[in-house]
Structures are given as C-alpha cells and as structure tokens.
Design goal:
By secondary structure, this protein is α/β, with parallel strands linked by helices. 37% of the residues lie in helices and 25% in strands. A six-stranded mixed sheet has the order 5-6-7-3-8-9, sandwiched between helices. It has a three-stranded antiparallel sheet with strand order 2-1-4. The protein is globular.
Length: 259
C-alpha cells in the first residue's frame, strides 16, 4: 500500500470580504497517495485552485485539517516538499531560461556547480536542452511553460502542484505537452496535483480525477482511472476513455445539484 502524501479531512475555507463571507471550500475529504497523478476539475470558482493553494500554504483553511507528507502545509513548504507551476509561465524576461530555472537554487544557496548540474538535468527532462541561453521572449508559449515546469522540478521536490499550466495554449500544443507531461511523470515518479477545465485532459493524464461542484467547492465524485499507464493520444477514442469522460461529465452535472 503506497503512502499517503496529502490528507484532507473535513476541510473548509471561507474568505471574509467586504460583501460578506465567501465559502470557497466545504467539507473536503481527500487522500492523495505517493506517485499518483490527480486532476481537479470543476466549473470556474469551484475552489480547485484554492485547494491547491491550501496544499501550498498560500491559503489557510478555516475548518478541518490537511497534512502534506504527514506535516502541516507550512512545514512542508519550509522543507520544500513541492514545486508549483502557475497558469502563466511567470518567467523573468531579463533572465535567460537557465537564469530563470536557477533562481530558486540561488535562493537556496546551492553552489554554482550544483546549480549548473541541476539546470542541465531538468532542461533535458523537459526537452529544452540547447535553449538555456535564450530569453523567454525568444520561446513559444509551450516552450515557456516547459521552462516553468523545469524551474519547479529544479529543487527536486517529490510533489508537483500544477494550476492549469496548459490552459492558455492551443489544442495541438496542449496535446503535445500532455504527452510530454506523462513521460516526465513516468521518469520522475512525482506525485502530481493538476488543476484543469478540460475533461479530455483530466481523463488522459490522471490516475485519479476529483470532480468538484460549484461554490462552495465540494467533491462531487472521485474517479479512479482504469486506463493503462502507457497512454498514446489515440487512447482518447477508446470506449474505456469515453466511459470515464462520461462519468466526469455526469459528476459535473450532478455537482450543480448543490446550487
């Protein structure tokens, strides 16, 4: 039995605003095991990103509990348990690709030799070897996002938190990056928590799909994928894939019953 990496129990989060309280998450119970690829899908404003931010210690729950590797999100953050990939690549335009990837390593105080070795390794992982001296504006959107993933991988955290990293990219680029992300996951054995609005993306990538309902964000369904680990893109035409996609769609529809 693989170990539990993330455990949320009865977790709720309410934001206090000038217009009154906003209930972002309600009664979330969830376990993520080591090495799983878990996608969170649901309508806008259902708390997908908020839950990721709670895991990353960027938001504090107002009720219930959550642990990352058995400790609080704050302790996990301080021990650099995870890397975070945002919707926008967020690369500094005045730094080269290598310079952007090095930034967290510089902050950590690693030696120049160690920094260089790690940069070379993660550039190879995301298929960007040879682009280290380029600046972000010289790269396509898809390549910039791969550089952002490389930066998150650079300090070798076991958990990767990804907030709609491919949402702004066209479908052809997105498909290609989905394939590359699966290969990367297979190579690194990371535990990945991935937010998406796309049903095909969630089904294609995940070992587990968490379907969320509109605000307050609740879990409407948790679907364990029955797809094989190796997944060519054309698996999306298979009956098994379409069946899981249908269940996700039904979960999204049922989630609206909470309104």
């Amino acid at each position: 039995m693989s170990e539990t990496v993330v455990k949320a129990e009865n977790l709720s989060l309410t934001f206090e605003t000038n217009d009154g309280p906003v209930h972002a998450l309600a009664d979330i119970d969830l376990e993520i095991k080591k090495g799983e690829f878990v996608s969170f899908i649901g309508p806008s404003g259902c708390g997908k990103t908020t839950f990721l931010r709670v895991m990353a210690d960027l938001e504090k729950p107002t009720a219930g509990s959550i642990t990352i590797n058995g400790v609080s999100p704050e302790e996990a953050r301080k021990s650099r348990a995870y890397g975070y990939v945002f919707q926008a690549a967020g690369l500094y335009p005045w730094r080269t690709i290598a310079g952007n990837i090095k930034l967290p390593l510089e902050i950590m105080g690693l030696t120049k030799a160690d920094q260089a070795a790690r940069v070379a390794r993660v550039l190879d992982l995301v298929d960007l070897t040879g682009f280290e001296k380029k600046f972000p504006w010289q790269l396509s959107g898809g390549m910039q996002q791969r550089a952002s993933i490389a930066r998150a991988l650079a300090f070798d955290a076991d958990i990767l938190l990804m907030d709609e990293p491919f949402g702004a990219l066209d479908e052809i680029v997105r498909d290609h990056l989905n394939e590359q992300l699966l290969q990367l996951w297979a190579k690194t054995n990371k535990t990945i928590a991935f937010v998406t609005h796309s049903i095909p993306e969630a089904v294609y990538l995940s070992t587990k799909i968490v379907v969320m309902s509109p605000r307050p964000g609740r879990i409407a369904d948790v679907i364990e994928s029955t797809l094989p680990t190796k997944r060519p893109l054309d698996i999306r035409d298979s009956p098994e894939f379409l069946e899981i996609a249908h269940r996700v769609r039904e979960g999204l529809r049922a989630g609206h019953a909470y309104d």
